[in-house]
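haha ok so turns out i had the wrong file open the whole time. this is the CORRECT one, sorry everyone. sequence first:
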Amino acid sequence: MLRSRSSTYLFIALATLAVGACSDGGGKKHSDPMGTLSVTVRDGADSTLLAGVRVLVFDANTNQPAADALTTNSSGVASEKVAPGTYYVKLSALHYESSPAAGVSALPLNVVKGQATSTEINLFATGDTSTGSISGKVSDGTAAMAGVLVVATDVGGSVAYSSTSDQSGYYVIYNTPASTYKVKAWDAGYGSNEVDATVVQATATPNIDVTLTAGAGVTVSGAVTFLATNNGEVDVSLVHPLTRDVIPGTLTHTSAQAYSIASVPDGDYIARATFENDSFVLDPDWIVKFGEPTVAVAGVDVVRDFSVTGSVSLSGPTNPAEDTTPVVVDTLTPTFTWVAYPSTSDYVIEVINASGQVIWGGFSNNWATKNIVMPASQLSAVYSFDGLATEPLVDGKTYRWRIYASKDANGNSGGWNLISASEDQRGIFKVVLPVAP
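then structure:
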């Protein structure tokens, strides 16, 4: 039986629709009661069609896999008949970065009865062909378990890789370097055993099966304080501290500035609030002083409170607030603009690539140093105006930029506090250079 799921954070390209019909064999045409979801996958560098890509289709309302994982054919296409509804897809392949990039919100695909929904997605090579993979099946000892997060953590406990089980419980974790791993499954309401897996360079490691046990029942709850802004309602979820995947079944929303997440299995998590575009952000000064709010669950209920504040508004380039479709820019040196934030002494800008790496600006020395300092009167900046970006922007790739608002402590420029930032899921843009005539 499929279980309800809250939405996780992914990113896909906007689909286009094409109408189809079928015949009853007697020449009379009628609408197909199902719809078709089709994905074409290309290499982002040279547009080569990619075969062998794993495509997992999720029901956007339940966050459950709608079918077993698909595999793109020699034409780079994977297609599936599904009931009319809203879906999103997740792609992974050996030696390619996954899509969507980790931590980016889902853009749903609408499948209509008797119609075809098509989308084209680019994958970018990792540049490392020495990695292997881990695969297996998740079950409760009898039945397959779908929509379960599976994480392989290295023996040092500092690096982890993840995947999600399909409708038949199968998972594949690609691009794991040669090492020994502990493989464990994560799902609200269930505990999991740990299975050892040894990956040899450029080799697949199959049959790493994981078993879930029902009964996890710890509750994580708390209050959310709204600082220097009106009260509102925000999303709260628990994420894996290494992979940053949302633990299935833990996404909720506050009610009267409080939240509660039930059936949380034992483990260490990061509590994430207001990830969605809602005009709020987690108080950045809290993160600087105390780190991200962590939750350690060990058989007893846990209380975790935190604070949020109003976000800095971005003018452009940015995706709209209602979805995460990247806005297109036609230059390698875009100009970023934002709206003045009250009580700000200066701003810090940050640009992040699709792999989650800060390539310009941001902070260093564990938040102690602001890599770029722009006065409160400055509300725009050209990419790498200081020449300090670690890499140029690349045609065809997607990026995200943020602004942080800083305030001198007690009027002393020698000390400062972060008072706000732009939202996690704004500032998403894609570089598409004009085609030469």
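The domain at 314-431 is CATH 2.60.40.10 (Immunoglobulin-like).
again sry for the mixup
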